[in-house]
Amino acid sequence: MSSKDLLMEAALAILARDGFDGVTIRKIADYCNLSVAAPYKHFKNKEDILRQSVGSMVEKWKIREAKIIARYSPDLREQLVRLAMDWIQFVLEKPAYAGLVLADREYLPASITLPMDSMMDYSRDCLSRLTLTERWSHEKYLRTEYMFHALTDGALRQLRSGQIKDSPPQRKIIQKCLRNCLENDF
């Protein structure tokens, strides 16, 4: 891993642990066992490191997302379920991602939260297209969107904390819950 990548991962880990105000160039350098000058070879300041770190995370997700979209096109329900399951896997692969995704965004600058919000653009669009295709009411769309995201986020939190064991049977249960969410009227 390059020193730039190492610094970006460290920045995300510190952001997840200490919040935005707790991130400093010195902490990032110390985390990587590098000199305090090392981050300045690649970045202008703390916000630049964080912006590029989130940008890299978004780019990695978009690549994975495109593969799922291509594989499960045109089945909108299956795309949504597979995207949610892969999102959970993606976030669990790197603890810094999980910390950032589950962090309180209220205290983060827009230069970080806006790119993160774009990670779910396709899922929102996919659910909107499903709503039109199925002729759901606006109320059903809102309930389904809320439940689907709550199930995904809840599963992510429980898997991350160890409340539920990450295993193929548990993943199948999560998938079934997500599918049921898209099929049922609440």
Model description:
The protein has helices at 3-18, 25-31, 46-72, 76-93, 95-101, 110-117, 121-134, 138-161, 168-183. The longest helix is centred in the first third of the chain and has 27 residues, at 46-72. Helices cover 74% and strands 0% of the residues. It is elongated. With 186 residues, it is mostly helical. It is built from nine helices and no strands. The model has no long low-confidence stretch (mean pLDDT 93). Helix 3 (46-72) packs antiparallel against helix 4 and helix 4 packs across helix 5 (95-101).
What's the structural blueprint in terms of helices and strands?
Elements: H1 3-18, H2 25-31, H3 46-72, H4 76-93, H5 95-101, H6 110-117, H7 121-134, H8 138-161, H9 168-183
Please provide the ordered H/E string of secondary-structure elements.
Answer: HHHHHHHHH
Terminal residue distance: 47 Å
Largest sheet: none
- Provide the β-strand percentage band: under 5%
Q: In percent, how helical is the residue content?
A: over 70%
Overall radius of gyration? 18 Å
Low-confidence stretches: none
State the helix count: 9
On the 0 to 100 scale, the average pLDDT is 93
Oligomeric grouping of the chains: single chain
User: How does the overall form come out from the CA principal axes?
Assistant: elongated
Q: Which class do the helix and strand fractions yield?
A: mainly alpha
Number of strands: 0
